[in-house]
Amino acid sequence: MRSIWKGSIGFGLVNIPVKLYSAVQSSSIDLDMLDSRDHARIRYKRVNETSHKEVPYDKIVKGYKIEDDYIIVEERDFEDAAPEKSKVVEIENFIDIADVNPIFYETSYYAEPDKKDNKAYALLIQALTKSKKAGLGRFVLRNTESLCIIHPLKNVLVITRIRFAQEIRSTDDLDIARSVTLSKKEMDVGLALIGQYAEDFDISGYKDEYNDELLKIIKDKAKGKRPTIKKLKPQKTTGSDLYEQLMSSLKTKKEA
To answer: Is 3.40.50.11260 the CATH number for 5-27+79-166?
Structure first.
């Protein structure tokens, strides 16, 4: 793997030099865009809107528009904006990871220490594991400041970027009732149904089946075949009584 960031994790006066590696990869099928007439690939060009000529990548700069003029922002400007955050993931406090709503999560990175036997790295992993806490910090990656959660995964520190509060849209505009009255028996059966389906989380049991099926169709088409696909119809609920639907669900699960 190729590292995407090099710096350190800091907490208190302890400094742990690390490299970051992407911890995730796409499972979707890589499809190219083609011209339907001759199946030639579609290419995108960086074009000067005045001359309409293609611009070499090394001639492209970034700018911020103020009134009618652009102010060119150089690489040094990004670093000068937060020199310490460009090189250090500074842990500002420790939190319960369960307190972080999943809506805030973005993507994760593995943090590799500068040497295998780094005691500070091992200490942070073991201390986080025993305390059941996670670090909350911030750092700059690709010229963007990010909040992050620092948490252990077995013997590896993981840095998971999370969104800032202002990036989450308000729910006020959604047309949802603020309160709905439920009877005790409806709630009791609803909880029983959840309990019946409850299991320990094991991600290994879940696969990206859609892309597997799509790849199978593509390979069949390459052989001149077209698979027979079952047409699924949305299942209709029997009756409109919530309690009866819940009871039927419980019975169905037991029979299965």
So the answer is: no
